[in-house]
Amino acid sequence: MEMIENRTFDELAVGDEASVSRTMTEEDIHLYAYISGDVNPAHMDPAYAATDMFHHVIAHGMLGSGLISAALGTKLPGPGTIYLDQSLRFTRPVSPGDTITATVTVSEKRTEHQIVLLDCACTNQKGETVITGVATVKAPTEKVRRPRAALPDVRIAEHLRYRHLVTRAAGGAPIATAVVHPCDPAVIAAVAEAVDAGLIAPILVGPRAKIAAAARTAGIDIAAFPLEDTPHRRAAVARAVALVHDGTAATLMKGALHTDELMHAVLAAEAGLRTERRVSHAYVMDVPGYARPLIITDAAINIAPTLDDKADIVRNAIDLAHALGTANPKVAILSAVETVNPAIRSTLEAAALCKMNDRGQISGGVIDGPLAFDNAVSPEAAREKGIDSPVAGQADILVVPDLEAGNMLTKQLTFLAGADAAGIVLGARVPIILTSRADSERTRIASCALAVLLARGPGVAASQAAA
Fold first, then answer.
1. CATH, residue 33
2. How far apart are CA 314 and CA 263, in angstroms?
3. Could you say which of 55, 82, 135, 446 would form a disulfide bridge with 422 (CB–CB 3.0 to 4.6 Å)?
4. Which parts of the chain sit beneath pLDDT 70?
5. Helix/strand/coil for 173
6. Which pLDDT score, from 0 to 100, does residue 467 have?
C-alpha cells in the first residue's frame, strides 16, 4: 500500500523541495467547472474560445494552482500542514494536454508558530513557467505516515453526443411535423423546445380549445403554429396520417395519447403508413463511458419478433446508424451466450441473421452474434472469452431477443448508468417521434433531431419508394 509521510518543522531545511505532476484533460476542466460553478466560456465553449486571445479552450487558472496545494498537503511539508496564505501570478495559459509540474521549495523558516514560507512554481512540459507564487503554511510538529487515500472512479456524463446530434440536425430547414393531439402543457413545451432548436415546423393536430388551454398553462404562444382542429384523439391521428399522405408533413410526433392509439393508425392496412418493412422502435443511447452512440432495438413495439421481423429490425437500425453518420455500423445480435445453442432460440436467429448479412440479404453494416452483452460492448470481456470478431467490444447497434430484454436493458442503462435514451419509430413512411412526459428536455430534443436526420436522409426516400 502506498503511503504518504510528512516532514515536520524540525526536519525541514531551506532549499528542500517537492513536486507533483498532472496532464490536464478536457475532463479535468469540465469537472473543475462543475465543482466550482465557473463555466466561463473561455474554459467550456470551443466556439467562443476560438475567438478570444488564446484561440482555444484553456484550463481555469485555479485548476493548475491546485497542484501546489497537492504538493504542500501530500509531500512538503505533507499531512498536518495548515495553509495560511498563498500568492499567485499566472504567466501562461494551460491547455488541455499540457503536463503541469508544481514544485514547492522551502525559502524561510520561522520558529515562532512553526511558520514556513515556500516558493511555488508550476511549469509545463516545455519547461515554461505558467504559475508562480509564495505559500505560507504552519508546518506539522508531529510525524504522520498514512496510507494514500484511494480516489474514486469519476465519469463525467456530458452528453456531448446529443449536442452534436442536435447541431447536425439544426443545420437545414426545419422539418414539417404533425404533432398528434398536443393537449398537454408538457407536449406544447416539447414542441416549443424543438422549434427553438431549429428542428421542426409544427402542425398542431387536435381539439383547438384543449390545445389552446395546454399552451396557456405552459405559458407558450402558439399563434404562429398552424393548427388542424379535430374533435378528438382518433380524429387527430387520422388527420395527422393524412397530412403525411398528402406531403404536408414529413414526420409525426406523439402528443397526449397512448402509443398504441397512434400506432394503430400508422399500421392500418389501407390508410396507414406501412412500407414493406416491419415497423420497429430504436433508442439512441448516450451512455457515459461508452465511446460511441449506442442504438438498442426493439424495446417498445415488437414483443416477440420472428426471424423475419428481426431482419427488418436490423435493417431499420442500420438506416438509423447511417443517418447518424456511421457508414458501416457494427451490429451485435444479443443473447445469453456467445455460441449457438439449439435450446436458445435467440442464438439460432443470431446465426441466421449473420448468414443473411453474408449473403447480402441484410446490407449496410457488419453483423455478428450471438454475443452476450458484455462481449458486445467490452473489448476486455471479448478478449477474455477469446472472441475474434469485428463487432465484439465495439458494437454500434444492439439487437435484443425480445421487447422484455430491450426494455430492461435500456432502463438499466438509464437508471443505473446515467444514460439518456432518445427514441424513434422506424420502418414507416416517415419517422415517428415518441416522447414521454418523463423525458428530459435533452432527450426530447434529441428524439426530434433523430427524426429530422432520418427525414432528410436517403433511407426514408427508399422506404417510401418501396411502399
1. 3.10.129.10
2. 20
3. 446
4. 158, 437, 458-467
5. coil
6. 37
Terminal Cα distance for the chain, rounded: 67
Containing structural domain, residue 345: 160-466
Backbone angles phi, psi at 165, to 5 degrees: -60, -45
- As beta bridge partners, residue 102 has 20, 122
Dig out the grid coordinates for 33 from the structure: 467547472
CB 145 within 8 A of CB 5: yes
Instruction: For residues 358 and 244, give the distance between their C-alpha atoms in angstroms, rounded to a whole number.
Output: 36
Count CA within 13 A, CB hemisphere, residue 298.
24
Residue 26 CB burial class (10 angstroms; 0-12, 13-18, ≥19): middle
List C-alpha distances in Å: 6 to 9, 22, 55, 68, 80: 10, 21, 42, 16, 7
Q: Are the beta carbons of 340 and 348 closer than 8 angstroms?
A: yes
Pairing verdict, β 280-286 and 420-426 = antiparallel
Cis omega (within 30 of 0) for bond into 41: no
**Cα→Cα distances 102→171, 269, 273, 354, Å:** 44, 71, 65, 55
CATH number at residue 299: 3.40.718.10
Is the pTM of the predicted complex or chain greater than 0.90?
Answer: no
Q: Which residues pair with 252 in a beta bridge?
A: 178, 432
> Which residue intervals of 230-306 are DSSP H helices?
233-245, 259-266
